[in-house]
Specification:
Length: 252
């Protein structure tokens, strides 16, 4: 069975889609899971053990034009998928599954293109995103998941920063990882709040800061104002390295 999972939103949404991949694989171990996402997240997604292949959708670049979009759909059609699980709720993602010729297309009823789906799952507010995504899997008959969330990470980065597994290379204080910025301004704390928090954490924790290259300028303003010592990873890690950093955090 060949399954296409579509999630072309941000990295957090991609991470929250991984248990869905695991549910499919655990329900049907012989299934071949293809994960469609943005090029920036390809390296991260293809590291996951349940994912057989990552399909890059450069929807903000070359696939933005109608001609290239249709050509991309044609490539997907040649894959001859049995099922599409469309997590992303845009009109484009639903249309993509339809034009790819996938006979069984399951997505959320709140999708702008829900009329392209052969089966719809109610998008219920008030439940965790992982549980919502798993409902797509259950509708397709993939109802097994052991609850163990297997997060891809960079083993070499982990060993370099924290020692080999089981080693106590980081002595003393527990590790607090902070990330001060977001793609959405409405989700960001004012800088003065971060300054106070970092100084409070610094009394009891080793503080490490993470973030994207675009966060560097804003982060440096915060960093100059704090008194606590901070390990600076802002703009210096890819997603797999960031995953290793978070894996070793005592608090996030």
């Amino acid at each position: 069975m060949k399954v296409l999972i579509i999630q072309s939103a941000f990295i957090g949404d991609v991470i929250l889609a991984l248990p869905l991949c695991e549910a499919v694989k655990q329900s049907f171990p012989e299934s071949e899971i293809h994960f469609l996402t943005l090029p920036a997240y390809k390296k991260f997604a293809e590291k996951h053990s349940a994912v057989y292949k990552v399909i890059e959708d450069n929807k903000k670049g070359e696939n933005r034009s109608l001609v290239n979009f249709l050509s991309f759909c044609g490539k997907l059609r040649r894959e001859k998928y049995d099922i599409a699980l469309v997590i992303h709720r845009s009109f484009r993602s639903a249309l993509l599954a339809r034009l790819a010729g996938i006979k069984k297309r399951i997505g959320f009823d709140s999708s702008a293109g829900s009329f392209f789906f052969t089966e719809k799952v109610r998008y219920e507010q008030g439940i965790h995103e992982i549980e919502r995504n798993l409902r797509l899997a259950r509708r397709a008959g993939f109802d097994s998941w052991d609850g163990n969330w297997n997060m891809p990470f960079d083993e070499d980065f982990e060993e370099a920063e924290f020692g080999s597994p089981g080693a106590s290379s980081r002595s003393g204080k527990p590790l607090a990882v902070i990330s001060s910025f977001s793609n959405w301004g409405t989700k960001m704390w004012p800088a003065e709040y971060w300054i106070k928090l970092i100084d409070l954490l610094g009394a009891d924790f080793t503080v490490a800061a993470a973030g994207a290259p675009g966060d560097i300028e804003g982060w440096l303003e915060i960093k100059k104002a704090v008194e606590a010592e901070v390990i600076d990873f802002v703009g210096r890690t890819d997603f797999l390295e960031l995953s290793a950093l978070i894996k070793n955090a005592d608090i996030l």
